Amino acid sequence: MKIHSLLAGALMLFSLNAGGQQQRPKIVAEGGTPDDRASARVLYWNGQTDAAAGQVAIDYGRPVWNKEYNDSAKFDAMTRGKVWRMGSNYWTTLDTNLPLSIGGKKVPVGFYYLGLHRSEEGSEWSLVFIDPAKARRERLDAFQIERAPVEFEAVMSSVTKAETPREKLTITLSYPKDDIKHVTMRVAWGNLVLKTPIEVVLPE
Q: In this structure, is residue 17 part of a structural domain?
């Protein structure tokens, strides 16, 4: 009787576990709501031919700064020695049909996924470039950016303190009117402000 009871209990437990596994869906979908996304772009126009001469565009989601990140210890734990997605939801992307030099690093014409890397000691930041084809091959979401192979990095400098903290991530591309091929990329989020120079190779 005892053996029979033990077997019956084991079978019942197996049945419950199997039933629980069957009830749990293998794949679910999310992200059907509108995304808060923004773009930073520089378009070059040829006035003589009245046609586009090239452009650089960054598209990104805008996460909201969490007040908990004002605690430097918590922010350090989240960022030091890690690659951050630099955005929310879908990948932050760079699309350029002009050759660039970003932070002194040559960036060929193409389409890239972007992220940010912070050094282990926390003093250095760099812009991370990921090959979208490799990320697609693994079906990686931007949330899994730490699993994506980094092609190369470009140095970014840190501004000591933000003049006005940004509630949402804001990326800008600015340039002087008398020197349009020298662009400054600026990333601002909460108290974090990073920037790097971009030199655009314009067609002759």
A: no
Asked whether residue 13 is assigned to any structural domain, the reply reads no
Q: What is the pLDDT of residues 142-187, one digit of tens each?
A: 999 999 999 999 999 987 666 788 999 999 999 999 999 999 999 9
The pTM score is 0.84
Secondary structure of the chain in HEC code, one letter for each residue = CHHHHHHHHHHHHHHHHHHHHHHCCCCCCCCCCCCCEEEEEEEEEECCCCEEEEEEEEEEECCECCHHHHCHHHHHHHHCCCEECCCCCCCEEEEECCCEEECCEEECCEEEEEEEEECCCCCCEEEEEECHHHHHHCCCCHHHHHHCCEEEEEEEEECCCCCCCEEEEEEEEECCCCCCCEEEEEEEEECEEEEEEEEECCCC
Domain enclosing residue 61, as ranges:
36-200
pLDDT, tens digit (0-9, with 9 covering 90-100), for 93-130: 999 999 999 999 999 999 999 999 999 999 999 999 99
